[in-house]
Design a protein that fits this description.
Helices cover 73% and strands 0% of the residues. It contains 15 helices and no strands.
């Protein structure tokens, strides 16, 4: 059974509660994991070794944790972006959503809200942004690329207006939200613990739930999915809402870490999140996706940025080096997939 047939089959059963999803054999899941994530994980490992061998300090635990922490915000955005890309949608608004939600949270805390109480409001704001994108896309029958390109600037503009173009400061940094959520419980940044939970949950959601099956079925063949009765519009709303939710989660963690709301943060994050997804094996053509691969892709981007510092590469070459690594990673992953298809 092909991936497309499996996704449609799962989605068909998902429409009928009397036909529960059948668990796939462990060997099948293992083969899919190796096929989808091995390439990007190998590239990540080679990259770490390539920097760590000439510069052993790069392999220091604190440095690796710091580098991984720097990738958390892009990684969370990429986790949600996988669902949009897997069903042939794209959310370019995540950078603007991130900045706006960050400012909203900072303003609430500055105005007297308990920081922990502001977090649910931030998450709901992110979900609302995703739902808004989906509704505009559906009502106006426009590609999500165009809609979210507009809302990228719209949401960022709202954030700038709310913050009056300045950082939102004077927050109670002694609160447990900033000391714990912005700290390193157990010697590991709190944000990395959150990322681990999100990756596990969303990887299961994409691979093992009715929602994930619908996302993959719609991405494989939207017309066939709609003809078979799969709720395409509702699934689009859910996917883009999930993208907004993971982006808002990134904003909440950024507020805890930075201790301020900067409306200029997040510029270019949307392109990095998409690049992380593509590096990790989620094609723009839809039909499949990898949450684990997307996070590995974000880690690669972070490792490249950190490695350039050790190699003393001028900052003007940063974009060039990052783009080159993206091309190499995508080419390696594509070659691995072709080899796997020939063997099957």
């Amino acid at each position: 059974m092909t991936e497309t047939e499996r996704a449609v089959d799962d989605a068909e059963r998902a429409r009928d509660p009397r036909q529960p999803l059948r668990p796939r054999p462990l060997t099948s899941v293992s083969r899919r994991l190796v096929r989808d994530e091995l390439g990007v994980l190998v590239v990540l490992g080679l990259l770490v070794a390539g920097i760590g061998i000439p510069y052993p300090d790069f392999l220091d635990t604190d440095n690796l944790l710091s580098t991984a922490h720097n990738s958390v915000y892009i990684s969370l955005m990429a986790c949600g972006m996988v669902f949009a890309l897997a069903m042939r949608e794209v959310d370019l608004s995540v950078g603007g959503t991130y900045a706006m939600v960050l400012v909203v949270g900072a303003l609430l805390v500055r105005d007297g809200w308990a920081p922990w109480a502001a977090v649910p409001v931030m998450l709901l704001t992110g979900v609302a942004c995703g739902v808004f994108n989906a509704l505009v896309t559906t009502v106006l029958a426009l590609p999500s690329f165009i809609v979210t390109l507009g809302t990228l600037m719209l949401f960022r503009g709202v954030g700038l207006a709310l913050a009056d173009g300045r950082q939102v400061t004077d927050l109670p940094l002694g609160d447990s939200f900033f000391t714990f959520a912005g700290g390193d419980p157990g010697g590991v940044p709190f944000a990395l613990w959150v990322l681990l939970v999100v990756v596990v949950v969303l990887a299961v959601v994409l691979a093992r739930t009715r929602f994930g099956a619908r996302v993959r079925a719609i991405g494989s063949n939207p017309d066939a999915a709609a003809f078979s009765g799969i709720p395409v519009v509702r699934t689009r709303v859910q996917a883009l809402a999930l993208s907004g939710l993971t982006t808002a989660c990134a904003a909440a963690l950024a507020l805890a870490f930075y201790g301020a709301g900067d409306p200029t943060l997040g510029q270019g994050y949307e392109l990095q999140a998409i690049a992380a997804c593509i590096i990790g094996g989620t094609p723009l053509a839809g039909g499949r996706g990898s949450v684990i691969g997307a996070v590995a892709g974000a880690m690669i981007l972070s490792m490249v940025a950190a490695g350039l510092v050790f190699f003393e590469v001028p900052i003007n070459w940063t974009s060039f080096a990052t783009g080159g690594v993206i091309l190499v990673a995508v080419a390696a992953d594509s070659a691995l997939r072709r080899t796997g298809r020939r063997r099957r």
